[in-house]
Amino acid sequence: MKHEIKLREFDFESKNYQILPGTAQYYCAKHDKSIRLNIAGEDSVSRGNNAFSRDIDVLENRCFRYQILTPQDAKRTNKITFMFHGFNEKDWTKYLPWAETICQKTGSSVVLFPIAFHMQRAPKRWSNPRDMYAQCKQRKILYPKVESSSFSNVAISLRIHNLPNRFIWSGLQSYYDVLQLVEECKSGLHPYIDKDFKADFFAYSIGGFLALTLKLCNFEGYFSDSKVCLFCSGAALRDLAPVSKFILDSEAYAALYSYIITNFEQNRRKDELVSHYLGGEHPEGQILYSLFDVANLQKTREDLLKLYQHQIFAIGLTKDTVIAPRGISRLLKGEHRDISIPVHELDFDRIYSHEDPFSISRLSCEETKKDFDSVFSLVCSFFTGS
Length: 386
Description:
This protein has helices spanning about 60, 95-105, 130-140, 155-160, 165-185, 205-215, 250-260, 265-270, 270-280, 285-290, 300-305, 325-330, 365-385; strands at about 5-15, 25-30, 35, 65-70, 75-85, 110, 195-205, 230, 310-315, 345. By secondary structure, it is an alpha/beta fold.
């Protein structure tokens, strides 16, 4: 059944930015614990100009507007689907047809919620072509062997290269922000979402880390009945190949891989904040850590995946070189392939990529539309149980 849809906007102010790099003193309210560090958390993209700020002070990341696609005549809703995007995304254009289809075919309102420092949560200067071309040129001089450096990825590549644990803190801030929004809704404070709502998740690419962390942690039982649909998503970080002009350059990925995969235990021991959040005192940190490598906390992760195996569904694309279907199956189906999470592998008789599975400019093309429909008929059938 199709529904006419409407795009609404709402304000959000994150209360969780204090976890970000940029201060010497941290405080965990849950454990009444102070943690002292000496990390500048400098905005390495803007170093040396008047726009310089620390991560913790980036106002765009703290205060922003998010959109909800809703059935046209709905005054309130008790059914939402969070849509989480990919790495280094700057606008929602490619996601709007996805969200519209889910809204039309399921009747669910779709919440376009941005990950920290992405989309409308990133300073506009990070997307300024002139500034980023200059940064890219300088980066190629500093690192002559760098691969896939571009004006599109130079901002995030600089930031990850200079401080790889930003991946952790941005992920955890995003997790806490979603919980903040959920709790505001459950308190009856949201002007559109009813306090007795049900939430599902549609996650693409790196957004799967956020969706799986929310589902597997299931804070306060909020997501016991939530379904998670993963598209080109669901592999461990170790099994990703994100070096791309649209995602990360090779130097940034090498730094991220070294920090999170190769040398993580050493890095955790040296960093009291990382040790606190990913060392066992915070379930969300444990789950996130378990998604870095299939060997990490394998039994814990696989027990939870088995518990929710009938509420998780994944679709991979054969020609996806960033998150291959085999990597998705490796994580979601478990070491012994005894987890019954469906992982559908599809292929299209045309050129496509992880970053652009359905070119917006070609969605009116019959072949692309057929491929789009083949994916989202599976997605919507999963959400509706049909």
